[in-house]
Structure formats: structure tokens, C-alpha cells
Amino acid sequence: MPVARLGKAAHQTLAGLPEEFWWLWTSTLVNRLGAFVATFMALYLTLDRGYPASYAGLVAALHGLGGVVSSLGAGVMADRLGRRPTMLIAQLSTAVSVAVLGLMVHPVAIAGVAFVVGMASNASRPAVQAMMADIVRPEDRVRAFSLNYWAVNLGFAVSSAGAGFIAEYNYLAGFMGEAAMTLACAVVVFLKVPESRPEEAPRVPGAGQPDDVRLSTVLRDGRFMGVVGLSFLVALIFQQGYVGLPVAMGTDGLSSSDFGTAISVNGVLIVALQIPVTRFIQHRDPRRLLVLSSLVAGYGFGLTAFAGSVGVYALTVCAWTLAEIVNAPTQSGLVVRLSPALGRGRYQGVYTMSWSVAGLVAPLMSGFVIDHYGAAWLWGACALIGTAAALGYSLLMRSLEPDTQGQPEPQPQPQSLPGSAWDTAAEPVVPGAGSVAAALTTAAPVVEPRSTDPAT
């Protein structure tokens, strides 16, 4: 019986998604399987090249800055050039720049190429998110985003383990291996993933036409930018698992291997629980899920103030990992519902930028607080930030009522996608045409269920 139930659950999780999604999912998995460089970059610069830790931090910051810069540009490209060309350009650029980075020896050259790698590697994310929203039916999007997030973490878990062995053998092999895997990802997209960008309806002379969705349109969309701001707060919390947590464990006299043991719980839980948890939450109220996940994330990190052993640290990782599992697909579904179909790339670009900026701010925040006040204050700040994010979600959804007077956007005509599942009955949400409360309410299954985030 348990085997039969497991088979039924697997079928319900995987069935009904279009073929294009699974090729896109495969490209994501291949890409993350080759993500070696991010794992051993700091060790490469300090141990192999002999540079100080401050220089390694500068390179990491430049890599993150590149991601911030490319988020907006890649979103515009995804809407103007198309999702598929944007992904191909980003992946080919990543493959070339990663290979070049492995050959650089001068510190200025390494820093400059690292910035380019950050731009290239982050540029495909808005296009991937927009394409998934294009090709997957609204009621299946929570499931699709969750499966994609699962592929990201599964690939990262495998690549992290492989990176250790590669680094012991030859660092250059890691750079070239990532370049090869990214190139393979581009080949999958080129051969199997068709363009999905909706075509704009023909303009009729003399008739009123909807305004084009521009980057300024996104930035003036107060409701959406409020969600982006709350996403930044949540991302700021989750980033502490990789910047503040290792430092705090070090001050407690624990080793890097102890940190590896504790943080590995995050990857294991995501791989094991992401799919079953998504099946559980996709029929729950998304508004409550965002409030709850923000609180659990903040106080999960807040409990770290009482940790002093590897076991207790691992338990705190369990707490905020559960929040991450719930928050990622729910937040991504909300972003899609608030994004008009013809502007999904730009909207996804701005949303992706919130995580990139958090990746820049989090190290500065953790370093300053730990140096001046101690790690306990950092974990207390995480609890406060989580509370603020939860309160923000609650107020944003309570204060905005559905606007029944808003003018709906004309339904765009999709390009030919053999085998894909288009839902022509589901109109995209237009800036000014509805509220966050309405978007979240309609995000539930039957009308539309459902991150990175993320991430990141």
C-alpha cells in the first residue's frame, strides 16, 4: 500500500506538465550539476593563488554585483528578444567567461572576469522564470516552480560534493567542467526548447491601445514593488545561512567541516521534502503561507543565538529550511500573477534583482553586526526582519481590495508551442487592474496555485 500511494503521489506531482517544461527542467538540472566554481572560488583564490581573504571577498562581491546589473537588462531582453535567445546568450557567455576566469592570473583580471561571470550566469534566470510562466497552465505553476527549485538544489548538492574532489585534483578542471556543462545546457535549450514569448496583439489604427510594458512601468507598480521589497527582506534572512552562519560557528570554535555538516541538512531536506511539501501547500491559502514562512525563517535563524554545538545548529537549519521550501514556490507564483504576460521578463528581472541585492547586502550586514555587537545580535535582527516581512505581507494583502474597475489587458496570442498547455481563459494581471489580495486569492488551485527564489 505505501508503494502504491508513493506511485500515485509521484504521478500527481509529475503528470500534466508540458514537454517543453521538462526540457527546461533538464537544462536547469544540467546547469546546476556543473556549478563547481561558486563552491570552491574562495578556496581557489586563498589556497591555490595565495590571495588574502579580503581579496576573495572583493571578488565575491563583484560577482554578486554583476548579477545585480544583469537582472534588469536580462529581463528587458527576455521581453524584447525572446526567452530562448536570452537564455542562449546568457549560457554561451557564461561558458566562455568561466573558462577564461580559470586562465586568469592577474588579480585585476580575475576580479574583472568574475564580474562578467556574475552578469552572464544571472542573466538566464528572468528568462527561465518567464518561460515557465508562459508554457505551464496557471493551476500547475506552483508545482512547476517547485520542481524547478528542486532541480536547482539537487544539482547543487551533487556539484558541491563533486567540487571537493575536483578541487583536490585540479582547480582548472573545475572551471573547464563548469564551462562544458553550461555549454551542454545551451545545447539542450537550442535543440529542445522553443520560444514561448507571447505575441502582442496587432494594433488597430485609431483604436485605443494598451501602454507598452516598460521597465518604468514595473518600477511604478506599487503593489509589485512592495512584494519585491518584502522578497528582499526574506532573501536577506536566507542569505545568512551562507555568510553569517559559518562565521558564527567559527567563533564558537567549530570547524569548516562542522559547518559543512550543518548546512548539508539544508540541501538534504530540500531534495527530500520539496515535492511532498508542495503537494501539501498548493491547496492552502498563499497569503497565510507567505506570512508563516517569513516568521519561521526569521525565528529559525533567531534560534541560532542559543546554538553551541553542531547538532543544535543543524536543528536551526531544519527550521529555516522548511520556511524556504514553503516560501520559494509560493513567492514565485505570486510574482507571475502580478506580471502581465507581455512584461514577464521585466517583472522577473526586477524580482531576481531583489535576491541579487540581498546577496550583496547580507555579507556586509553580517560582518558589521558580528564585529561590533556579536553573533547573537545578528540572529535577533533576523527574527525582527522576519517579523517585519510577515507584517508587511499581512498589511499589503489586507489593505488592498480588488479593483473591479481596472481594464484587463488584451489576451496575447502565444507563438506555436507543439505539445504545450496554454490556458487562454487565464488573463494575466495588469498593473492597476487588481490587488495583491486578489492575485493571491486566485493563486489557489482551480484558478491558479503557487520562488527564486530563488535564488539564488
Folded structure, characterized:
- With 456 residues, the chain is mostly helical.
- Helix content is 74%, strand content 0%.
- It contains 16 helices and no strands.
- The longest helix has 30 residues, at 222-251.
- The radius of gyration is 22 Å and the shape is globular.
- The protein starts with a helix and ends in a 15-residue tail after the last helix.
- The relative contact order is 0.15.
Structure described in brief:
The chain is mostly helical. It has helices at 2-14, 19-33, 37-48, 53-80, 83-103, 107-135, 141-169, 171-192, 215-220, 222-251, 256-281, 286-302, 310-337, 344-372, 375-399, 436-441. Residues 204-211 and 400-456 have low confidence and may be disordered.
Supply the key terms.
456 residues; mainly alpha; 16 helices; globular; disordered C terminus
Specify the helix fraction band: over 70%
DSSP E strands, number: 0
Q: Strand-residue fraction?
A: under 5%
Cα-atom radius of gyration: 22 Å
Chain-averaged pLDDT = 78
Largest sheet: none
What oligomeric state is this? single chain
Task: Measure the end-to-end span.
Answer: 38 Å
Structural class: mainly alpha
Topology as a string of helices (H) and strands (E): HHHHHHHHHHHHHHHH
Count of helical segments?
16
Low-confidence stretches: 204-211, 400-456
